[in-house]
Amino acid sequence: MEFQITKKAKNVTFGLMGVGLLLTIVGVLMNMNDHHFLTRFLGSGLISGFFFFALGLGALFFLSLQYATETGWYASVKRVIEGVAGFLPYGMGVLGLVLLVITLNDGAHIYIWMDAKVLEHDEIIANKSAYLNPVFFWIRTLVYFATYMIFLRGFQKRSAEEDRIGGTDLHFQNYKKGAMFLVFFAVFSSTSSWDWLMSIDVHWFSTLYGWYTFAGMWCSTMVVLVLTTLYLKKLGYLQKVNDSHIHDLGKWTFATSFLWSYLWFSQFMLIWYANIGEEVAYYMTRIANFKVLYFSMFIINFAFPMLILMSRDAKRNAGILTFVGMVILTGHWLDVYIMVSAGTLGANASIGALEIGMALLMLGFFAFTVLKNLTKSPLTPINHPFLDESIHHEI
Amino acid sequence: MSDKVIYVMYDDDEALKDSAKKLVSKGVKISEVFSPFPIHGIDPIIGIKNTRLGIMAFLYGITGLTVATLGMRYFMVSDWPMNIGGKPNFTYLDNMLAFVPISFEFTVLCAAHGMAITYLLRNKTLPGMPAQNPDPRTTDDKFVMEIRLNENHGITEAELDEMLKETGFFELDKKEIN
Question: How far is it, in rounded angstroms, from Cα A363 to Cα A369?
Fold first, then answer.
């Protein structure tokens, strides 16, 4: 209500969408006659669709984490988290559409287990078909979407109600619902990453995969929360957010970067050490076709935040946070890009107009939706029980 | 050089904080505060600089990382190349991954122990060291502020007494130091 999207922000976000759409069309025209075209097109949709969907989901997770732990400091940035979480339905729409088109094309060489012809002569995949079959895949996908949606709507409804009537009843209800969401999320974050991403490399599996995907998603979400908060502060909103809040969000970015790096390394080292053929295959394709990109992506997402965000002053500096944030956000997009492309196109994969175009299109759409969500309610919650604590937050 | 130290005792941390604020605004320099627990927000009031323990932690960590790397290179590669699970160690780099967990653990070990020991040394609170606090009650439920006359040249003792009286202290103690 107090926040209005500036003309500049509107121009930039629509500009991004325009440039993205243009690049996508250029990419389509350039690659239309290529026989990998459909795989590349849908794969590119899956990369950007999943990445931006995950930002919204990460925000929903972070919000329920704050509810479940009855955190106080976050109250003055709560609307930013809700704004990002509000992208979730749109993210689901895009991801759902991409998944639907993939399914209608018998997996489009992305999910080869959807192709009946592959199943006939591939015993490993055939043995997994009790779990990996299009019908059960869609039941699971819809259950995930529905669960996320129900919790998101509930949080949004209670948040608006809290602004009107306040009181601690809503707070304890949020506390319960937050904890309940975490239970569902603990299972779904793993299984959904198996379904949507790990099943691309269908012969291979890793029990760390779900955690790995989740850590990347969480880290990207924290970056988006920092950037949005800094942007709003620069425009003169969020007066109640002080350096300590920025410092805390910076710490989360730093910590989740480490969580991600830790899981990346754990998965890599265990497979390297055991050296079992069917496990190593996953990394062989990555090292053969994406050597530079794969390892530089790891260095960017690990060393960059570690060295630059280590000091207290850096985590309180808007310029440094913005710079590091943008770099590691790109790094995590690259991570998702390799997750999808290595198993689908392999040696034929490259980042061209199509991939960049779709990413920019989604970025513009995401940024505009988040800003639009922020206009719908006061930027500082009015009756949040921990608001006073948050205003006096000092570390 | 003789000096006079004034110990002002309060029975509440908020009371101490309020009076410290008042005294500092009148130009009094408070040299130390003794308290059973950390008083939130007292540091900027009495002008304590940010801790540099974090920088030391970083240096200890770097030391640990270096020692671990050099050590493992000597033990596992130079002195006696080890062959573990079919992975022979003829170069350090080829088997870097196997050394990462130990490098990490040793970095953390050195950083944590270095930090703890530095902290105890700097505070003079190593086990067995004589207590620094003026009154044993500051480890229980009392809060003491230390003011040194030598650090407050512009203010006479009488003026200081007057100011302190207004803050409503619990107990006042003065001590001559030679």
Answer: 10
